Amino acid sequence: MIDNKELEQKTNDLINLSKEAYFDLQEQYNFNIIRTVSDNIKALSLEDWKKADALESAVLDTLHVAYNEGNPAGQVARKACDLHRQWLSLLWGKENYNRDAHRKLAEIYLNDPIQKEYFNKIGSSVAEFFNLALINYCNEEENIRIASMLESMGDYESRIGQIEAAEAHYEQAMELYQLEENNLGLAKVFHSLGDLESRLGQVDEAVRHYVQAGEIFQAEHDNISLANVLRSMGDLKYRYGQVEIAQRYYSHAEELYRIEKSTGLADVLQSLGELDIRLGLIDTAKEHFGKAEKLFRTQNDNVGLAKVLFNIGNLESREKETDQSRDHYAQAAELYCSEQDNLGLANVLLRMGDQESKLQHYELAINYQKNSYLLYDAENDYAGKSYAMGALCRNYALNGQVEEAKHWIKTTQENLDNIPTQVRPYVNGCIRDALGVLGINYESI
């Protein structure tokens, strides 16, 4: 048991130590920080002090092992530093902890004779070793924080179509994660790069990054992240017509989501429903979409709900239930607009144009498809943009708008090098149809 006199002495010692750690940082963090930290130490309960003592003992025990191991940047040294962070967070208050003060303590432990003697009881140069370990730990934490911020910036830029900026920030994040040997962070960037490359039609690059991400997540036993990658792989394979391979990826992802009871289950059920339509399994598709819709509504996930409503509309369009499909498309478009998801909205508009074209409402079809083209173009989605260009070639021709049809045929042909390989058969088919309707060959344009 700690008696009152001993507790008072410990409180004063720790307050003085904390004042020294924060003294040079007052202006940076706010002038009340020393008082706030001191008040937090004074307010600790006996139970808090017991936890602090247990953490302090754990720090010393782990530090002893790390010191004998001899690597201040090793895993055991990191564990000692993290236990020390937990100890400080308890004493100072979690909201008052910061790495700069922690780094300052590393200097104090090395330069203050009393602190140095305290740590050197473990070994002749433990204070020096702990100083190096804490500096490394605090710098590592800062690097990982910066890497995470860069990754988030890349995600945002990818979403709004700033491709070069996104790639640059992903590259910077990767360098920091590699420097700190943070495999999970690195895998997340690989996954994000794969998603970006999939959008750009860079299939081989996307697959390579998905595989790299999946291997790391599997090695780290991160089932949910692995399932997310498998779902992305399934989406990529499905988009380019490799249905059986996509089904295997989706099924594996579904299994992992169910094991982990993850919200990602709704997404993969939806993907399986899309695949069922391609395979002609209409009843199974309806079942998958129904389950997904229910989960999305429960989770208040508007983007997921928009996608499943869009897919239900596709199913109804296939079955010539035109009014119902229009209603579901409209609901999906409204949700995508509210969530500012331009790619989702572009997908809906493109499909609405396809439906109206089949009904020979060519002018309405062209309006939808032109808007989808503009959205895809703004988002740098080359696959979607290519589908829209092909559809416009055909529908302008079918609507008797000869000059407009010629313009889009020429524009599409001029951009052929940028059209993803897997989309070219569809685009070439649209151009052939348009030329056939116009009764001309390409050379005459």
The tally of beta strands, per DSSP, is 0
Largest sheet: none
Q: Which residues form runs of ≥5 with pLDDT under 50?
A: none
How would you name the oligomeric state of the polypeptide chains in this document? single chain
Distance between the termini: 94 Å
The H-and-E topology, N to C, reads as HHHHHHHHHHHHHHHHHHHHHH
Rg over CA atoms, rounded to whole Å, is 30 Å
- State the helical fraction: over 70%
What is the count of DSSP helices, taking H or I runs of 4+ residues? 22
Q: Write down the overall geometry.
A: elongated
Give the DSSP E fraction (strand runs of 2 or more residues): under 5%
Mean pLDDT: 89
- Secondary-structure-derived class: mainly alpha
Offer a few descriptive terms.
single chain; 445 residues; 82% helix; elongated
Q: Can you tell me about this structure?
A:
The chain has 22 helices and no strands. It has a domain at 4-141. 82% of the residues lie in helices and 0% in strands. The longest helix has 34 residues, at 126-159. It has 445 residues and is mostly helical.
Chart the SSEs and their pairings.
Elements: H1 4-22, H2 26-29, H3 33-42, H4 46-69, H5 75-92, H6 99-111, H7 113-120, H8 126-159, H9 163-179, H10 183-199, H11 203-219, H12 223-239, H13 243-260, H14 264-279, H15 282-299, H16 302-318, H17 322-338, H18 342-358, H19 362-378, H20 382-398, H21 402-414, H22 424-438
Helix pairs in contact: 1-3, 1-6, 4-5, 5-8, 6-7, 6-8, 7-8, 8-9, 8-10, 9-10, 10-11, 10-12, 11-12, 12-13, 12-14, 13-14, 14-15, 14-16, 15-16, 16-17, 16-18, 17-18, 18-19, 18-20, 19-20, 20-21, 20-22, 21-22
